[in-house]
Design a protein that fits this description.
The chain is α/β, with parallel strands linked by helices. The protein has 6 helices and 5 strands; from the N terminus they run βαβαβαβαβαα. Bound molecules: D-ribose.
């Protein structure tokens, strides 16, 4: 299995799942390079601040991935996708977690603690980490995606 480097982050709505996934990814042989956000759900944080911090960290660490968790994952994904160089995928099923890597070369996985069961979330993170970008015709599309709007 390939080993990945992850930068993690959550707001107060995703602390428990973030820490649970850190343990799972570490046990699978991946490395948690950094963790951003509150230590407990009692400590409020604004998801855009966390998303920006994590995305900056992974852009400074080429080849690494981001994992962002908030209540729904929506705010994290919306923020992350405003940052040049980021392709953030909000997923809730294993097939989409795989395709986000294989076809879209997603470099950030966004999850919602308040919408996903713990076992599904673990499966999503594992699938994302285990899947490589296929390149080929998908590279052309990702290149277009990265130029879109400019
Ligand atoms: C925080 O209450 C909540 O709005 C946040 O975690 C997230 O769901 C936003 O997208």
């Amino acid at each position: 299995m390939r080993a990945c480097r992850f930068h993690l982050g959550s707001d107060h709505g995703g602390v428990e799942l973030r820490d649970e996934l850190a343990a799972v990814l570490t046990a699978d042989g991946h490395t948690i390079m950094s963790t951003a956000g509150p230590r407990s759900a009692d400590e409020s944080a604004d998801y855009p601040d966390i998303a920006v911090t994590v995305c900056r960290r992974l852009l400074e660490d080429p080849g690494s991935f981001g994992l962002l968790v908030c209540g729904t994952g929506q705010g994290m994904a919306m923020t992350a996708n405003r940052i040049p160089g980021i392709r953030a995928a909000l997923v809730g099923d294993v097939f989409s977690a795989r395709m986000a890597r294989a076809h879209n070369d997603a470099n950030v996985l966004c999850l919602g603690q308040r919408v996903l069961g713990s076992e599904l979330a673990k499966a999503l993170a594992r699938e994302f980490a285990a899947t490589s970008f296929e390149g080929g015709r998908h590279q052309r599309r990702v290149d277009k995606l990265m130029r879109a709007g400019s």
